[in-house]
Structure formats: structure tokens, C-alpha cells
## 1
Amino acid sequence: MDDVDQVFDYNAPAQDTHKLLRSFLSPPLDSNLQKSVHEFLGPDATPTPIQSLALEHLLTPRDKGYRQVLLASETGSGKSLAYLLPVLQHLKRTELAEPRHPRAGLVSPRALVLAPTHELARQLAYFAKQLVHHAKLRVQTASRPNVSSLDNRRRVSASKMSDAFEEAVEGEFEVRPGASGPRFDVDVLVGTPSRLLEMSRGHGWRLAGDKEVERERGRPWRVGRPEMDLHDVEWVVIDEADVLLNRDFVDDTRALLADAATARGYVVPAEGVLDYPFHMLLTSATIPLTQTAAFAARHPRLKRLVSPGVHRLPKTLKVEFAQYGSGSKMQDVERRLRELWEDDALAGRPPSRVVVFTNARTAAHALGAFLEEKKIPVVTVAGWGDNDRAHGSNKHLAGFIGAAPSPTQDEGDATTPRVLVSTAVLARGLDFTPDVSTVFLYDAPRTAADFLHRAGRTARGGREGRVVVFERGEGRGTGNAAVVRQSIAALANRRQVVRR
């Protein structure tokens, strides 16, 4: 793991939240949203620090024009609600004032929410739908499986496209006939950058002009008809911005932002300041120094709302180290699981749910198969297609994350999976249930950010949690274990400067 002082921007001062709103009932939050919040979170729910900051600065904007804001807060602090409430309130208040220009047969969202995985996109859509129960806005997901039955490789009429969409998503999209033909009225569309790009540019757009593909097919590649129009986009939310603006995701994220800006008449410069013609919100559990430099160059007026707990481990999280020698690490995992469940039984508790993170997909599948052989029911999610991941819902994560269907088996049934094995694919943003009290790190995280996100799947919202780090106790690799311990200790003790 890396030196946290060389990775995270601790010079970005956190805001003092002591004088901010302490209740969702306080104006200026609309009454319908207030009602939904308390139905969703409970009648005694109060805003977390990052939610108070968002309500203070985003519901009552102090500057004119389109806004660029970063919400930075520790995992489990409620960032999703922090940005959803201001976005939904603005959409509701302006739904009749803002003219819309949808094209026939196309999805025409007013807000895009970008997430790194389909699982997170579905969960965010679920959260948003709970909040608009009384406000009556339309929230949909753009998960790839939702449109798997729609043949985008050939051009179809608007009416046929409407029928295909309705059949594909089982009524998720509400089709409303407009003056220019069938179209899809959607206020908020949630999805991964790659899926949203495919909707705006057409299925297979990446293969257009690829000579090798055309040579194999024996004919030119034909891009599918676009499914989405971006003229009406007023908000773009980049959830988990430290992921979506880094490495594998940044090109698609920037391309989608450029497409939305172009659709609204803005010429995106190759260099210099970016002033998008829509509100842009970014959320993150970390502020990498590399992104700070990029923000300074491209988004100099970006406002940063930073929680005092960012870049730190929660006080309710306990970190343990489990040493293994030359024997099987998988056997050590099995042993620790059984010890944990024995403790639960002695205390009269149901067996805890445990999430195990590996660095490699092969390790995840090998560990999952090993535990199954030992009669421990397990769910393995390490990439596309695992455990029905491609079927367009979060059913494969039932019992582990919020907004997923509960297991059909009895909670005490020995066949009910109590272990989820995954790579980093499920380490970002997902809100795991309180039943997930323990996280096993089968492999040492490669970076401090990886550790923060994986550890952050437990001890959420002030609850207690535990992370068990498996490290080599003898032989090669013990030096790396010492570095990991030092980095974790720094995360536990390093504090963000608070602006008073």
C-alpha cells in the first residue's frame, strides 16, 4: 500500500458542520421529499454531516448559473441521499418551467447519474425511487440487461422500439405518446458511463470503422439506432468520482459529458476550463492528489464540500490481522468463518454475513469453490456473468446489500449464503446491510483507496464493524505486511483540517 500523504489531498479543508441543519424537517426541503425521507429512513432520521452540507449549499445556491460541486465524505456517510435530494427538488420545481425537446422514441432524461457498476446503479435508482414516491418523478436504470432483448443492430421504427423497450424492462419505462410520436419521459436515468454512451451513440458504436471487425464480418459494421436524447439534461452526477475519473472509466465519463454538452450547444474545448451547460455534481470517499490537479486546470470554480471524516477510518471499525504461513490461506479463511459463527451461536445471534475481497478474479472463484466444497454456501461475484449478475437485477446479492430482494430461505437455514466473495467490482459505493458486520481482506489491498473502500462496506452509518486483513506471518511477503499495517494506522489517525 502507498503512503496516504502522497495519495490523498489532506489540504482540502473540511467544512465545520456544527451550525448546519440538524433536521430534514427544516426548510427549504419540500414537504413531499421530507415525507419520503422519513418513510424511507424512519421518523427520527437526521442528516449526516455531508447531507447537512449538501442541504445548506445546494438547496439554497449562493451563486448563479450552472454549478460544479464535489461532495467528499467517508464511506457509509449517506452521500447518495446528499445529492439526490437537491437534484430531485430542482427537477420537481422546474418540471413545467423548463421546455423539453425529446426526439421520437428516445429516452429524454433531465438528470444523469453515473455509477461504476450495474449493481450500484440499480441501488441508486432504488434509493431515488423511494424519495420520489410523493413527488411523482420518474427514475429509471440503464443497466445493460434491461435492454438485452432490444435489437439495436438494425434500424426499427419508433413504435417497434417502444414495444421492445416495454417488453425488455417489464414496464420499467413508462411510455408516454407525444406530439412527435412515442417517447420516453424520464426525469432521472442511472447507469454506467459505458451503457449510457451506448444509449446515446447507438449499440456497437465503438466498432464503427474497425477494419479488423469489418474484415471478419465481410461487410461494414452498422451502428444501432441511438436510444437516448441528451438535449434536456440539466444535471449530471458522477458517483464515485475517484473511480469514474481514473484509468478504466475516465474516457467514457468524459465522452458522455462532452456528448451532453454538445447536445446542449456547448463546444467542448480540448484544453482549458470546462464550463458545462448543466449542473455537475461529483461524489467521492477520497480526494486523490492527481484529481485535485486536474480539477484546478479544468474545473477551477469547482466547489468542494468536504466532511471532517474523509480519508479516515470510522471509530466504530476494528481492524484485525490474521497471519498465515506456508499452509492454505483458504483453510485459514474457513477456520475464521467457523470461529466467527461459533461466537455468534454462543451469543445467541444468527450467523453473521461476511464479505471477502480478493484482488484477482481467479482467486475469488477459487475461494468460492473451496468454501462450497466445505459446505459453506457462498455467492461469488468477480466479473460479468457471475451468479446471474447479467440478469438485470440485484437478486444475486440478496441478503447482503440494501434494495436487494430478501433471501427466500429462512434466515436460520443452513443453505442461506452467509458469505459473499468478490473482487473490487463490489467494493465501491454499495450500501451493504447491517448484517454484514465483518469484511475479510483475502489479499492485501494494492492502494490506500482500495482499503478505504473495501473496509467501508462495514461499520456504516455509525454501526460497529470489523475488518480482518490476512497477511503472511513468515517467509516472503512479511515486509509488505508491515507496510500495509503502517498505511492502515495512518488512515486511522490522520485527520482532515477543518475550516472554522
## 2
Amino acid sequence: MKIFYGVQGTGNGHITRARVMAKELAAAGFDVTYQFTGRPSDQFFDMQVFNGYQHKEGLTFNTGKGQVNYIKSVFEAKPITFIKDVKGLDLSSYDLVISDFEPVTAWAARMQKVKVLGIGHQYAFEHDIPRTGSDPIAELVMKNFAPANTGVGLHWHHFGQPILPPIIETPDFPGEIKKNTIVVYLPFENQQEVIKHLCPFENFHFHLYSPVPVVSKYAHITSHPLSREGFKKDVYDCAGIISNAGFELASEALQLGKKILAKPLHSQMEQISNAAALKQLGYGHTMNDMQPDIIEEWLHHNHAVHITYPNIARVIVDWMKEGMPKMDKEFTEQVWEGVDVLQIEI
């Protein structure tokens, strides 16, 4: 089977998921072409697993000061370029298109009547899952940004719906952690403001990752540029993460048994809903803004949740090899039987 795979590159979560899928698709012998959009081409890193890939500008969202600005997103969009890219993408030689919430690929496939398989967290919102912070604009974006014929939704829990667990790498559980070490990834926040709120907690060591590293004058706050290997190592070693309420990083933290403090982007329905789900499930703590009292309480909290998820990328690839039969509740229930949730002390 020949596949065209489009990945939204605005955040690193989609790319991380695609890396895991790429390994399983290659192992299964599928011929895959990858396309990435959502950020400038020179801002992608550690892309070797994709064996060369296409890049288009695509669509993205304007973010700043911890929130999404939909009005600026519309004004900064380049509709003529987007339409040109959609019309210029020839999918006639492909048997299937996969979209990880990537709009150029999804809309090109729809225009050319090529079947689209949507894989990602966003497609879980087609079902009855925790949902808050919604508004007509958010609903419109979620439904039409990257439409698919078949959507495979991913979430931390099934909520009684035919959705699957997260697609993540499954490393060994850390045998030892650095109890006072915290990874901070808040790329949509003002980084100096983040440092200001963390500086009073001198008994903890913070590893702060951001797209544009800032200078930290505090010995207990180390600022890092984005680095896949460095970030993975620090997440593996740390006791917990402070991050926005993106899906993929929280999934990795749960798989590794790290405590979570999530600050959702304002005006971003998906992240607000993710934070609500973390709280509802008892999987993490949340804060609406950088609130020192909540940060302090969470830092001294020694409880976490360790979830062992099966290899969902392999489950999906095997399902594709079987002709993609209807992914009903019975199928997904069998998958969820392989999920193990454990409360731990750190």
C-alpha cells in the first residue's frame, strides 16, 4: 500500500506521534511519503526517521501570552498560498492518505476523493468525551481544519467511547528519579514571566525548554533550546512536568509515572478540555494562570499516576493491514484491556 501522510507541525506532539507511527509503518513494509506543515522548514529537527519529507506552509494558530488569538490567526493566514498548496498536491498515485490534523493533505484528498484516515487526539472530540471551553469558532475549527473519512481518536481514557489510547514510545519505567527536578515546557508563555514565577522555589531544579531559549540568572533554573534527546532524558529523570495542556507530553508523562501540572492555553478548547480530563481522571493538577500558590502545593505533592499503554502504533498498523474494518466499541475495549493504571508515590 502506498500512503501519503500529512502531519501538523505547529506543536511537537504531532511530530512525536508521527515518529512512532513511521517506525511501525516502515516495519510493516508500507511505502510512505510524509508532508509537514505549520512552521518554517528550518524549525524542524530530528527528522531522520521520515527519510526525506515534503514541506508546505499550511495553517497554524497565533499564540501569545498563554492564549490562542483566533482573529490574528485569520489575518495571518495565507489563504491563496493554502489553496495553491491544496490544489498542487497530486495524490493520484496513493492508495490512502493519513492526516494527523494536517489541513493541506486532508483537503487535497477530499477534493481528489482519496480516502483520508485521521489519526490523532483531535479526532477523539467526535465522540462524547470531556469537553469544555467550547465556542462556535472552536467547534468550526475542530470539525473543518483537517476533515477525514475515518477518524481514529486518541485519549488517556476511553470514557466508554470507541477511541484508542495514546500513540507513544514505550520506554522502561525509570528505576530512579531526581525528586527535586522538574521539566518546564510552556512554549506559548512569556519565558521571563515563567522564570519569575519559578525563581522563589530554590529547593527545586527546573529545566526550562523553549523554542527561543532565554537567559536565566538563577542557578536552579536551567534554560535549554528545544532538543529531542536532551528533552527526553530530562523528562525521563525528573519527578514531574509543568506544561501547557497538550496531549502528547502529558501522555509521555503518564507512561513514565511523572506528576503533571498543566496550564491550558486560554481560548483553546482542546487544551481546556485536556486539563478538565486530567483533573476528572485524577491524572494531574491544573492551573488557569501561573499561580505561585498552586505551583508550590504541587511541587511538594508526592503522588503520581503510572499508566502502561500498549503499542498503539502497532495496533493501528495491524488494523490497516486487515483492511481497516469498522473500529467499533468491541475492538477498542480489547485494546484498553492492555492498559494498566497504577497510583505511585515519588
## 3
Amino acid sequence: MSAAASQKRLLLVREAVAAFQAGDIATAETLFRKAAADIGGKRNDDPRIPYNYAVFLRRTGRPQDAVYWLDRCLRMAPDHTNASIEKGLALIELGQAQPAIDLLTAFPGDADALRGLSIAAFKLGQWDRALGAVTALPMPQAEDRLLAIRALAELGRLSEAEADGADLAASHPTLKADIAKALTRRSKGRFSLHEPA
């Protein structure tokens, strides 16, 4: 691809990203498709084009299409960390938790990878792994903390789960019902004998 053609495609990608951020999905889609036309997936192509298109596709609810473009990006740039992480997140959305875990464990210092890893492990009932990923997050969000509470409960560490639940409820009172569910749902259908007040 010539330098001029590459620059033209990157300009289209920038315009597509701006349209997406402005909420104009149709324009973003058109611009991304234009930019991605004739991308061959060769190492001399620019990986930013399929990567950005894939992110757009995943965030607009098309994870299967996103995986296709992420694979093309990774053929161009096999060490593209963000593309690998995005692919792991798309695989989770496709219900492929184990392949997602296999991919995301390669990025133990990335918050998005850790968050995805915790979700995938949660879906498979791998409570230790889910808890480990959440505790490795530098700034866990309320949803991450709920997942950790559930993992602690599943691991039989109820006093820790209840203490974390009380702490989360104090800072996020609207989550009390979700915290109660996290404390009482058990993987084998059992419920805690100690119901939170």
C-alpha cells in the first residue's frame, strides 16, 4: 500500500472514530468499511485500520465480526497487545470463555485483560482465578468487587465475602440487592445459611 493510500485510510479511520464517539453509528460504519476495503492482512498494511474497525464492531454488538478483523490485525502485527486483548473480550461475548482465558492470561499487567479474565473465569466457575484477576486490578470497580464477593462466597470464605459486601454497600448503597445475591448464590444451588440483614 502506498504511503498516500495509507494516510487516506487512516484519515477515514479517524473520521469513523469521531463519528462513533458522536453517536453516528451509520456514518462510522460506512467510513470504517471504506477504510478497511482491500486490506489484505499483510505485514505492510497498517494494523490500526482493522484494529479500530474491530473495536467498533465489538462495541456495537458484533463480536464475531470483530474477531475476524482482529485476526487480520494480528496477522499484520502479531505482537499487537491491544488487538489480542480485544479478541479475548470478543471471545467472552461469544461464549468462548476458555479460549478467552488462554489469550488474556498473557497480559497480567493490563486492567482490561484482568477484568476480562475475571469475567471469563467467573463464567467457568474458576473462582480462584476470577478472584485473583480482580485482586490484581489496580482500581477495581463496583462490578469487579461484586464478582470478588461472589468468588469469595463460592470458595467458602464467607466472612471475607460478608466484610467486603458491607464495605461495598457502605460506598454504593444502591448495590445492596446485588451484594445479597452475590453472597447467597452458590455454584451448586446451595444458599448461605447466614442471610445478610
## 4
Amino acid sequence: MTKNRLEAFTDGVVAIIITIMVLDLRPPESGNPAALWDLRYTFMAYLVSFLTLAVYWNNHHHLFQIVQRINGAVLWSNLLFLLAISMFPFATSWVGAHHIDSYAPEMLYGLVVLFTNIMFYVLIQCLIKASGTNSEIRKLLGQNYNKPLISIAVNIVAIGLAFIWPPLTIIVDTFLLLLWVVPERRIEIHIQKKI
């Protein structure tokens, strides 16, 4: 089974999700600059979600550069990953509308990030299993690859922080992106050696 259709489908879904998020941004009721300031939390929620989706897409693309084979488990785990990221528009909209007054929107946002992190980890594990015992992905990510597990653990803590101060969940999850902004260096070095 080739990976091209899976990558093209994933790219299309991510593009649609980002488009849905931007379409949810509504202009202010008045032409007064102060009205734009009132929407600052909505814009911040959108920006954080856009960056989060961009980081996931970038890492997904990077990961699939070393993938040679996929199977049914990879297809399903990728679909579950897409299911997780498809919840970002809803969570982003709710956070933007109720930015500080309630912990529930931020908790939901944190749960969406957690679900996405778990599904990305599951996708990596399925790719490793599908690729065989002597594959590039197994050699590069099969051992000592803790980024997904660190993300999951920190994200669980971030969800609990919503009870202390709701924006902490999104703040911690945003800082957690720093772990993923630069895709896995081992993959990058391996690709450079092949060129």
C-alpha cells in the first residue's frame, strides 16, 4: 500500500480544518478600534490553534518522509489523528467566546490537545510496526523517542491547571509546542545523509 493517498488526504483535511477556524472569526459589531480589542481572546485562541495545527502538520509531513509502507492499522490511526484535530475549530470557538470566565472551554481544549497527542503517538507506533524490523523509522524512532510521551504527560497536568486559572491550560499547551516546532532532528539528519 502506498502512502501518497494518505498524505494527500491528510493535507486536505488539515487545510479544511484551518479554513473552518478562520471562517469562524467574526468581525466586530462596530467600526470602533475598541471593538477589535474586545475580540483579542478570540484572535489569540485562533492563533494558538493555527500554530498547533501547523506544528502537527509539519511533524506529520516530516514523519512520512521516512515511511516506506503503510497498512490498515496506519490508515485507521491516521484517521483517528484527523478526528482529533478536527475538534480544534469547535474547541477554539468555545475558548474564544469564554476566555477566562469558565474552566470548561479550556479543559475541553486541553482534552482535544491530549487526544491529538495520543493519536499522533499511536500513529507513530503503527508506522513502526508496519515498516518491519529493519526499517528507517524503527531505527530512528523505535527507541529513546520520548517527545510524544512527554507531551501527553505535560498535557494531562495542563488540563488540571484549568481549575486553578483556566488560561493556564492553553498557556502550557502553547509552550509545549516548543518541543515540536523543530521536527525530529534524527529524521532530518537521516534525510540529509540520503541526499
